Known about the structure:
2 copies of one chain form a homodimer.
Chain A: H1 2-36, H2 39-70, H3 74-107, H4 118-141, H5 144-168, H6 176-209
Subunit structure (chains A, B): Homodimer.
Organism (chains A, B): Nocardioides luti
Function (chains A, B): Plays a role in the regulation of phosphate uptake.
Amino acid sequence: MREAFHEQLDSVFDDLAGICRSVESAVRLATEALLTGDAEVAERVISADVEIDRARESVEEKAFQLLSLQQPVAGDLRTVVSALRMVSELERMGDLSVHVAKIARLRVPNVAVPLEVQPTMTKMATVAEDMVSRVSQIITGRDVAAAIELGRDDEVMDQLRRASFVELLSDDWDHGVEAAVDIALLGRYYERIADHAVSVANRVVFVVTGQDPRTVGA
Amino acid sequence: MREAFHEQLDSVFDDLAGICRSVESAVRLATEALLTGDAEVAERVISADVEIDRARESVEEKAFQLLSLQQPVAGDLRTVVSALRMVSELERMGDLSVHVAKIARLRVPNVAVPLEVQPTMTKMATVAEDMVSRVSQIITGRDVAAAIELGRDDEVMDQLRRASFVELLSDDWDHGVEAAVDIALLGRYYERIADHAVSVANRVVFVVTGQDPRTVGA
Lengths: 218, 218
């Protein structure tokens, strides 16, 4: 019985890692659409999101089956509930990628991000994509050290977001209000993707160690 | 045993309604700080958020106790898991109120929202606060009809957000980039508060009827 439980739990975590890889692809393609103004790539991100939604439903169903049929307690119970939370956050990261793709699509045939802000925006996108990529490995390997390391990268994203505000609020800004608003919202979306990545990684730490890294000061 | 379970579940839902009232207060005060530039009111919202976080932890603990000790199945299990999700969303609504308060605080002694955008922004804030207020009643009364009604109000928020974009992207806009960016982000925060309110209300429908109103086309 317990062995079957842990096999099914492993299968849920495999699914979570798979969803995380789909999110990684969504972030990468949304950024490509954003920086090239490619409507077709933006559409791919938007239409692929339904698959992430479906995968979430499937994980939720499996988790409920585990809770109903196996009646886990203590650590096992908390692990299943953590999986339910992780899948919600991963789905949300997919939605945020769709928001990025929609801003890209809205500005076609132009590119939403003016040339001089592209270095900062590209860094934000790269940090977000890299964090999502590492989260799928963290889930697969239940890698506590990598998860705690990821939490520290959140600060890099905060710095980049501040840098983008400095750029768009400078006296030299001559791209108008629309581009500034786009960049502020895009920054918010990438920042939220990074926040969720850290949160998912923290849940892996909790699943493995029973402790939340945010409350033990790691 | 089943009676004890349902009493404890009622107590969890009472706690959820209480957290929702705290969120309502946070939304109201954050808006007051925003429209008056009152730093002291903004600080109150920011420092009160820790109480919402603590209340969330308490509900999570109670829900885990229920799952561990009572081992609910079927509908009861889904209700407890729904409660866990509702409390996450309520806490998030509190965080979003803090974001509004922080923009207010950042612009003190000025007011972040230019006079001509205040009508639209006030409407967004009023709609958000009203939705949160109704959600606490929906939780208390397990009021399915009111919950379904609430879902329809989300459209009002979308219209207001579009109206605010029309204002800040118009040729007449002469408040600069900073105010435009503030308004775009504030609109995003109020919209997210409304989204979460609808989601919490939908979970009440699910708890009472076993069906998610989004999937049955209500």
